[in-house]
Design a protein that fits this description.
Layout (H helix, E strand, L loop, with lengths): L1 E3 L5 E3 L7 E3 H8 L3 H9 L7 E2 L5 E3 L1 H13 L6 H16 L4 H39 L12
Amino acid sequence: MPAINDSGLQTISRGAETSLMQIGDVAARTGLSLRTLRFYEEAGLAEPTERSAGGFRLYSEADCARIDFIKRLKPLGFSVEEMRELMGLLEVVGLAGLDDRAHDRLMAFVETAEVQCRLLRSQLRDAEWMTAHLRSESRREHIGDDARVE
């Protein structure tokens, strides 16, 4: 039966089981569009736990955590295929550990992420410098239309 939780999100209660959320609730919670969530499903990155009798996507808390994880991978520049591979590696780590080949692959992902983080920090420094420069320029004395010399 649908209910509204403390966050104002509609959830589906299934007795003692975890509540499920519809796609609009997940979009509001994650800040992602419905289109992005549907794309993640089509790409095999984040499928909803189940569908309602009417065909609505129903997401669990674990699904939302996975979607948040994908959202955080995005700025690191990984392709959909790489994200899918990385998430698979991380699932194996949690279950049984990695063989040497898989561990090497995971370390390659780590290296790629570190390089991208350095690039993002550099871009942020540039953006902060430009913001400070614009702020400084905005404090200069303003010359109105009446004071202009033609």
